[in-house]
Amino acid sequence: MPSVTVTSDIRAIVLEVAASPGQSVVAGQDLVVLESMKMEIPVAAPTAGIVSEVLVAAGDEVDEGRAVATLEVPGA
Amino acid sequence: MTWQDELADADRRRALTREMGGPERVARQKSQGKLTARERLDGLFDPGSFHEIGDLSGYAEYGDDGALERLTASSVLFGRGLIDGRLAIASANDFTVRAPDAAGLRKSNAAERTALAMRVPLVRMVDGFGGSVRTLEAIGRTYVPDNPGWEHILANLAAVPVVALGLGTIAGLHTARLVASHYSVMVRGVSHMFMAGPPVLARMGKTYTKEELGGADLQAKAGAVDDVVDSEAEAFERTRRFLSFLPPSVHELPPRAEPRDDPGRRDEWLLDAIPRNRRRVYDPRRVVAALVDNGDFFEVGRAFGGSVITGLARFNGWPAALMASNPHVYGGGWTAEAAQKVARFVDFADTFHLPVVNLVDIPGFVIGQEAEMAGTVRHGARALSAVYQTRSPWCSVILRKAFGVAGAGHTDHSRVQHRYAWPSADWGSMPMEGGIEAAYRAEIDAAPDRAAKVAEIEARLNRVRSPLRTAEYFLVEEMIDPRDTRRVLCTFADMTAKLRQAGPTSFGPRP
């Protein structure tokens, strides 16, 4: 199955991890919630798939472009 | 039949130039998934409307008897044609031609000058990487470099809509020709752009693929070009749509389309669009779609400076430039890149007499050491200056936050305001959440329970936070039901249409 890497668009702190490896997610579902400018900013799955890895933990600092999770996308 | 022989000779020459760089090179161009220059011109213009100018130009070779032996096409094609029925000029580099080019630069300049003189849009189809040091040996000398044609390129930026399409591997002066436009597009996988390509960098010990060094997505994210598409056909389609919002030149006003959407249409969802929890985001593109005519929004530059969304739309048929904060990117806070995007977009709207609709949710500039190191304040000050210099009619709708210097930059406060607040509006010199600790330090330090004291102060402040208290002092003009936003924006466009002034601005936008 092809793999999709999901990245953060922003520099932020990880507030919460909202998905775990093995979990099926739909397109638009939150994988990780970041905090920036006092806002809770979700990083959503760009497509439906199965979470293979979550690459960050709550409290981590992430930079723009940093990979936060990978998805396996069936049949893509 | 006096001139029959000459006409026959001209026809024969035309047939030769139509072969472009020859069957082998044309086949190679097509095997790379690229259209030829002639297919590009045919694909851009309305069917059958392309009229070539300079169709006899090329590199000729004559025999000892003076008879033409070969004529290789020029590497630049240009002409006029119709785009959705409106006259435009387009030029296209023909990358299949590798012969010396006696006419290329003159044709390239003629394309630029014709658009300026005719006061019609220019579409530049760029495919090529310019000079080679081999030329030096051929001409037997070096030269002080210049940028041929730049004076025309710059003049056009201030005069006619310029769209540039990156349709191959682009380096050298061609990179500047691509980005010196009002709207630039690259085709994913087919187009690459760099100031110097992989072979040059390999000599410096750095190995890159063309995609890694200058792929379309990289250049769009860097803000060097505006958009990325998946095919040349899509690039032509986006060109047509972009131009549909604009006048043929700065000497005319943007054309109103037949209104096809009810200006009083109310989208019920808008009342629930903004969450009560101030830390939660919402979908700004859904808000935009609910407000513009037919939900039709032509977004420009999505990959760059993402805390501000920019694009073109219509309100009751009137073309408008629309900006909207995007809370998903830094909460809508202005980064250096977002500020650059705002400045360029506002200048563009001013140049082509588009009214500006600004949907505001700006918590301020993005803060932190990285933001300082990016020179955010310099770019921010330029953006504010663009907002204060524009003559375009301007309407702000404050959806949620307007804080600090960047938030204040939602409008030129010294103009008469077309300004509306949603009930979710929240504004001030700085957000309360960050300021309580600093402003009430003594009171908090003296309290037995610090957290309880902070909460108590916050509750006090929240009572004065209502936008209705601001409205009592006429510090904001109106609060509206979000569902009425489309109606007020259409009225704004109707009322201010007559204030738009045709003519050149005091200076043109810089790329």
Please write out the topology.
The complex is a heterodimer of chains A (76) and B (511).
Chain A: E1 3-7, E2 12-17, E3 24-25, E4 30-36, E5 39-44, E6 49-54, E7 61-62, E8 67-72
Antiparallel strand pairs in A: 1-8, 2-4, 2-7, 3-6, 4-5, 6-8
Chain B: H1 4-17, H2 23-31, H3 37-44, E1 51-52, E2 58-62, E3 68-73, E4 76-83, E5 86-93, H4 104-118, E6 122-128, H5 134-139, H6 150-157, E7 162-170, H7 173-179, E8 183-187, E9 192-193, H8 198-202, H9 210-214, H10 216-221, E10 227-229, H11 232-244, H12 284-291, E11 298-300, E12 308-315, E13 318-325, H13 336-351, E14 356-362, H14 369-373, H15 376-389, E15 394-403, H16 404-408, E16 418-421, E17 426-428, H17 432-439, H18 441-446, H19 450-464, H20 467-472, H21 485-496
Helix pairs in contact in B: 4-6, 13-15, 17-19
N-to-C series of helices and strands of chain A: EEEEEEEE
Fraction in helix of chain B: 25-40%
What is the CA-atom radius of gyration of chain B, in angstroms? 27 Å
Count of helical stretches of chain A: 0
Q: What portion of the residues of chain A fall into strands of 2 or more residues?
A: over 45%
Shape of chain B: elongated
Radius of gyration of chain A equals: 12 Å
Task: Count the beta strands of chain B.
Answer: 17
What's the end-to-end separation of chain A, in Å?
Answer: 8 Å
Major sheet strand order of chain A: 1-8-6-3
